Amino acid sequence: MNITTTDAALLRLLQLSSASLPVGGYAFSQGLEYAVDDGWVTTLDHTRDWLSVQLKASLAQVDCPILLRCHRALQGNDVKRLRYWNDYALACRETRELRLTDTATGNALVRLLVQLQVAQPFTQKETSFVAAFAIAAHHWQLNEDAALLGLVWAWLENQVAAATKLVPLGQTQAQQLIGEIQQQVPAAILHARALQDADLGAGLPALAIASAQHEHQYSRLFRS
């Protein structure tokens, strides 16, 4: 991967992928809270497996390839294609709660970008976080590889933070987990780059069940 950036672009990448970005990503466990509550995920090894499968079968199959297409649509000033891939990303969310995760963080990122005077190419009631991320990356002149790494890092950091609270994991275990999952990222991105449009999509039944059951838990720390 070619992730060469200017110093200014690198700083923007760090800003965009930071857990402190005020889009509310920390509020969503994306089904992990139910998986822990029901005993599916109870150890470091379980957590590693849970995240590895999502990286390979969800992010590499949906989020990353759609980010590429959104980024390229913006480069070509093709708003129609950008809107299409935004809607495609939302259609790939298998439950209401997974869609809520995407639209809540996406709409929050759009509001932030507007406040930062980043022009928005389209106005839409529901914006996928992936599309909003692509808009920010394009505006701040981040290349495709940098944008992909930033998106995956934002997901990974939020998920490990949730696991740290829920499983729970110690801080050292959390850092160990991040380091191990990081090693899988280049292959996931390479896979995402190789997909044709017809190949995009994912089916993770356990993740869908966990997110759907989350709202019925007796008590919850997260919104999904």
What does the model show?
The protein is mainly alpha-helical and 224 residues long. It is built from ten helices and no strands. Helix 1 (7-17) packs parallel to helix 7 (144-166), helix 3 (44-75) crosses helix 9 and helix 7 runs antiparallel to helix 8 (171-182). The two termini are 33 Å apart.
Question: N- to C-terminal separation?
Answer: 33 Å
Rounded Rg: 17 Å
- What summary fits the major beta sheet? none
- Helical residue percent band: 55-70%
Order of helices and strands: HHHHHHHHHH
What is the beta-strand fraction? under 5%
Q: Indicate the low-confidence ranges by residue numbers.
A: none
Category from helices, strands and their pairing: mainly alpha
Tell me how many strands there are. 0
Could you provide a short overview of the structure?
This protein has 224 residues and is mainly alpha-helical. It has ten helices and no strands.
Blueprint (SSEs and pairs):
Elements: H1 7-17, H2 32-37, H3 44-75, H4 79-91, H5 96-115, H6 129-139, H7 144-166, H8 171-182, H9 185-194, H10 205-214
Helix pairs in contact: 1-7, 3-4, 3-6, 3-7, 3-8, 3-9, 5-6, 6-7, 7-8
Give keywords.
single chain; 224 residues; mainly alpha; 10 helices; globular
